[in-house]
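User: Can you help me understand a structure? I only have the sequence.
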Amino acid sequence: MKKFQPQPGFVVQAFRFALDANAAQQAALVSHCGAARAAYNWAVGWVSASWWQRKAEETYGVPEAGLTQWRPWSLPALRKAFNTAKHTDPRFAGWWEENSKEAYNTGLANAAAAFDNYAKSKQGKRRGKKVQMPRFKSKRKAVWRAGSPPARSVSRAMAGM
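Assistant: Let's start by predicting it. Here is the structure, written out as tokens:
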């Protein structure tokens, strides 16, 4: 990766912030992070299901034309499928309206990027270490301690981890 070089005459300045959320704000942050994680996990399960189904069908000798269709993992395709599923899927039906649509979009965008990285790694188009197929994110990694979490924990939780 190339090192960032500012243009001559420009000044580069960075800031680091820590959130000091009250109880209501912390609950909202946790809810939005959980929504992003839930959308990510839904997308990983939705795309992976078609992959595993095709693999099983191939072992049964099903011809190529008869195999289950590939499910696309582009962000627009995931958003369209998620918008349909969130009304009927019991995992979302009761609470999806409580969070911003951007929380779900963040999870879907992360899933799309994870599948892209996996596909590029599998095809040899990505430099660096081989990337594994995306896996479900655990709820346990984003547990907050009593009181305000440190900035590092907030940024991890905000990333949907």
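Now, to help you interpret it: The longest helix spans residues 23-59. Helices lie at 23-59, 75-88, 101-123, 151-158. Let me know which part you'd like to focus on.
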